From TrEMBL:
It is found in: Cell membrane. One of its GO terms (molecular function) is CDP-glycerol glycerophosphotransferase activity. GO terms for biological process: teichoic acid biosynthetic process. Keywords: Cell membrane, Membrane, Teichoic acid biosynthesis, Transferase. It is a peripheral membrane protein. GO terms for cellular component: plasma membrane. It comes from Pediococcus ethanolidurans. Belongs to the CDP-glycerol glycerophosphotransferase family. This is CDP-glycerol glycerophosphotransferase. Pfam families: Glyphos_transf (PF04464). It comes from the Bacteria.
Length: 672
């Protein structure tokens, strides 16, 4: 028998479910429904069901789907039907034909979705921004911008709704809209007249209303299901309107300044000019790569002098654990050939620091790679980079796994591959590694399962973290002096993850800090320095020129470990930097300001983000500044039980000599 969810009606605080039964027989009896929450595995049963023909119906209090697991903000429920037939019980998971978004409370939402196998997923979640009102839709019409939103929650209505459109730079300039154009009892529609907006200005939208006798005012945002790029028409008969969604889902409306005829013609000319040049460059690049691949197939003899090739992040950096291992080799075995595999832009850096190098994808590079006794890398090589039989390949990897990897990604959606091919290639590459470094048991287990890895694992901690363990107080003072940080000031490091939605077009990225530097200066500027460590693609988008006394943009600083060492507090979001920073036993604050946008991706994490982190989670600028003060007054986390449990699980193995152990291991291997 099959069971398919076909409808859900919400009345007051109760929901009425209808499930279609396929191949229902007379022998079926004792039907009951099971709800199971995916994360906490909380479950409950509904015994009281009614059958009308082939339709099963039951009622459920809405609050029951909010779960009871402390601190959990999102609940993902699977639905199962169980019945007795021929004296034994059968169970099937309920499929789905019902898709809807419901609002169960001012800050409580419900979403019915179909998973990749066709089964129903009922998501109930609390919004993380209580002061944000989410619109259902926004549309551009000839004479205005229509705002669509919910005005009925269960059986209660929003009363006296007023929309206020406010100039971002001049908050006294406002437009108030009170006329509801909607024909529906549960949905409002307000129109912002375009004639009252000024070209080149940005506007935010506020809403005020009464609900259950309480007067409320909120910022206006948009549901995460709405995509401004695909769902909003910018140009209507020459009338241009831009719709942007800020980091916290707040809506920003603007009328862009139209391009002049000269600007349009110049842009078209350069676009047409670049096409043939880009095509020629692409053809030459493909021809060269084919030649390089062919060279790797030739057998070569090893160098007489022991030669070690180091590579970090595919040749894009001279950093991380390969650099830590290189430095010990340089100290203990300076007579070896120690060669960095790099891209051309790093040549000047290597020359300045007296490092031997070879440019990646060159003929010389192929020769060095094929003849070297050992490779030390923190990332995968392409499959066409062939390893000689005498070459020992050490994979340091580049971090404690947070997001799922390799075989643990059950459905791969990357272009140019499918799940089976991705898994096969990942496993094949991983098992070319002769040894793999692990920082803890947690990582070891993941590496075995995610990489399908069967070779040697060295559970000794990451070499890059030796610096965090061995650096003295005097050395930290010297680092502060080098960076221009006063010795008597506290230091906060802000290091968020890179977000794909910062991309606009080739070579252009946009990013706005999710907190005010002005407020930081006012509250902490006298005794605290803020260090910004952003992704290199967006680092130059942040202007700190007005805050030179208290803010440093050190996004291009080459060694992030030195930034950890001078910092008293780390603030991050979904980045795995906190695993390394925890070695210092200093406080960590998590500020996932766009949690609503990224929460679905958190299902792809190995850790339970809401319950297993070594620090507090905040969702607003106000809470961030409040908790920052608390964290800076409790700088030593040694006696914090939650933090110490995390430290024992992830950091306790490394004793500060991982780099030396790696060097000894390589030496013993290549001398056999």
């Amino acid at each position: 028998m099959r069971a398919i969810l076909s409808n859900v009606q919400t009345e007051a605080k109760e929901q009425h479910y209808e499930i279609e039964l396929i191949d229902l027989t007379q022998q079926v009896k004792n039907l009951r429904m099971f709800f199971i929450e995916e994360e906490s595995l909380e479950s409950f049963m509904i015994k009281h069901v009614e059958i009308d023909g082939n339709m099963l119906q039951f009622k459920l209090p809405s609050e029951q789907l909010e779960g009871s697991f402390p601190g959990q903000l999102r609940f993902d429920w699977e639905l199962y039907l169980q019945w007795e037939e021929n004296e034994h019980f059968e169970t099937v998971q309920v499929e789905n034909e019902f898709v809807a978004n419901k609002q169960l409370g001012l800050n409580l939402f419900q979403r019915f979705e179909t998973d990749f196998a066709g089964y129903v997923n009922i998501e109930v979640y609390h919004g993380t921004n209580a002061d944000l009102f989410e619109l259902k839709n926004v549309q551009h019409v000839a004479d205005g911008i229509l705002l669509f939103g919910t005005k009925q929650i269960n059986e209660a209505h929003l009363q006296n709704i007023v929309m206020t459109v406010q100039d971002v730079t001049d908050q006294k300039r406002i437009i108030q809209i009170t006329k509801d154009l909607s024909r529906y009892s549960d949905l409002f529609v307000f129109k912002i007249p375009i004639t009252e907006l000024i070209v080149g200005k940005q506007y935010k939208v506020l809403i005020s209303y009464k609900f259950n006798g309480e007067s409320l005012e909120q910022r206006v945002g948009i549901t995460t299901q709405f995509d401004p790029d695909s769902d909003f028409v910018k140009n209507i008969n020459g009338s241009l309107v831009c719709l942007d969604v800020a980091y916290d889902n707040m809506l920003i409306v603007s009328l862009p300044i139209p391009e002049s005829t000269t600007q349009r013609l110049t842009k078209r000319f350069y676009s047409q000019l670049k096409r043939p040049l880009s095509l020629a460059k692409m053809i030459l690049s493909k021809v060269k790569l084919r030649f390089i691949k062919r060279l790797f197939k030739r057998q070569r003899l090893p160098y007489q002098k022991p030669t070690i090739v180091f590579e970090s992040f595919g040749g894009r950096q001279v950093s991380d654990s390969p650099l830590a291992v290189y430095q010990v080799f340089k100290q203990f075995y300076p007579g070896y050939n120690l060669i960095w595999s790099i891209y051309p832009e790093l040549k000047s850096f290597c020359r300045e620091h007296g490092m031997q190098y070879v440019v990646r994808n060159s003929v010389e590079w192929v020769s060095v790679m094929r003849r070297a006794q050992s490779w030390v890398s923190n990332a995968r090589y392409p499959s066409w980079v062939k390893k000689s039989k005498f070459t020992f390949y050490l994979q340091t990897w580049h971090g404690t796994p947070l997001k799922k990897l390799g075989l643990d990604i059950k459905q791969v959606t990357m272009p140019g591959t499918d799940t089976l091919s991705y898994h096969r290639n990942f496993t094949r590459e991983a098992n070319r590694w002769d040894a793999l470094i692990s920082p803890n048991d947690y990582s070891t287990n993941i590496f075995r399962s995610a990489f399908g890895y069967k070779n040697q694992i060295l559970k000794i901690g990451y070499p890059r973290n030796d610096e965090l363990i061995n650096t003295t107080a005097d050395q930290i003072k010297a680092l502060k002096e080098k960076m221009g940080i006063p010795q008597d000031k506290k230091v906060v490091l802000y290091a968020p993850t890179y977000r794909d939605n910062s991309f606009i077009t080739t070579g252009k990225y946009t990013f706005k800090l999710p907190f005010s530097l002005q407020k930081f200066q006012e509250q902490y500027g006298k005794d605290t320095i803020l260090i910004l460590r952003m992704h290199y693609l967006i680092a130059n988008q942040i202007d700190v020129s007005d805050f030179k006394d208290c803010v440093l943009n050190l996004s291009d600083y080459p060694n992030i470990s030195e930034l950890y060492l001078v910092s008293d507090l780390l603030i991050t979001d979904y980045s795995s930097v906190f695993f390394d920073y925890a070695y210092l036993k200093r406080p960590i604050l998590f500020y996932p300001y766009d949690y609503e946008m990224y929460k679905n991706e958190l299902r792809g994490f190995y850790l339970d983000y809401e319950h297993e982190l070594p620090g507090k989670i905040v969702h607003s600028e106000t809470d961030m500044f409040t908790e920052m003060k608390n964290a800076l007054t409790h700088a030593d986390m040694t006696n914090n039980e939650r933090f110490q449990q995390f430290y024992d699980r992830f950091c306790a193995i490394n004793s500060g000599d991982s780099s030396r152990k790696v060097v000894d291991y390589i030496i013993n291997t290549i001398k056999k």
